[in-house]
Amino acid sequence: MCSGDLGSGDVLDDVAALVAERNRIDATLARRVRAVELSQAPERDGLTSMASWLRGHCRLSAAEAARLVRNGRALAHLPALAEAHDAGLVSAEQVAAAARAVTPARLAAAAEQGVELAVIDAVVTGVAVEQPHGDLVQVVQRYCDDLDPDGPEPDPTEGRSLTLARHADGSLSIRGELDAVGGERLQAALEAHVQADRPAGDERTRAQRQGDALVQLCDNVLAAGGLPTLRGHRPQVAVVVKLEDLADPATGRGAAEMGSGAVISAARARWLACDGAVSRVVFGPDGAPLDLGHAHRLADRHLRRAAELRDGGCVFAGCGAPTHWCDVHHLVHWIDGGETSLENSALLCERHHTKVHHGFRVERRPDGRWHTWRPDGTEITPPAALVAA
């Protein structure tokens, strides 16, 4: 394609048309999500909310699932904006910005002050259609400020958030917000470690030193043993590595797996084992632990550890709850003659543990995969539109 073609009106018109089409699709999706939420349809698949269903069955991120749900709710209160969204004139991002104006608390405040929501709807829609995105954000912020110009003393916890995004290589991206007091506490704790760890010739950047300080802070707290217990056990960093890799001095990239599912090298696993406890676990051909190095019948903590190693989290379809949220469930109930064994166990979060005691059922097939059935006998499977052909 020549350079003249790149700047042709036809190509740019195509891009604009695709953006408009995406806006219309996003509008339809948000409305449908809201309708499904009102019908409580996710309960049929054993999930508590539309956001959790979108995460588990449509593989959306937590942030995107939450935004989609909020947009659906906002469109119900802002009909003019909804119409512009339907027409492709307004994006999902713009709707998300406007949604801040119609939270339950702000709707209540507007009603108390006699604010005409239709007027706000018209103003917001006009700005969204005709002006840059930044202008819309400012207009919404001014409206929110005018609703409560003085405001009560803010609850510091409302301004705190922390998101951990795990990448394919097991590394984490950290994003968060802290209020002034919480931020001061974190800075003071980190700075103590930053200043205590400044060896001669240190060429780390300030950001690298603070990252190391955060990890050291976590190490100290874990080692002190004062953290709340998780399902009756102290929080711990778990690593699974083959005995031959642990003994072999080679680097062994991708040879060990952490409790979160992250894969690390055998060399790093050996480094962690230097000041950690090493337990022997023998796995069978189906990947299930057979022997946890215990001379007697499996005690509760040993059985739980085996289930954690095998299942990695809640096994209920569409649920991603981590191991420390889960109970060990008897597939055949103990009172009905079920054994307290790994073969008769499944890791389930509290909600889904309750569900399987009220009609739902989980089963582990010979290939090691878990399947979930509803009380009516139908299986919960991924939506057909999202299954590879």
From TrEMBL:
Pfam families: DUF222, HNH. It comes from the Bacteria. GO terms for molecular function: endonuclease activity; nucleic acid binding; zinc ion binding. Belongs to the Rv1128c/1148c/1588c/1702c/1945/3466 family. It comes from Geodermatophilus normandii. CDD domains: HNHc (cd00085). This is HNH endonuclease. InterPro entries: DUF222 (IPR003870), HNH (IPR002711), HNH_nuc (IPR003615). Residues 302-354 form the HNH nuclease domain. Keywords: Endonuclease, Hydrolase, Nuclease.
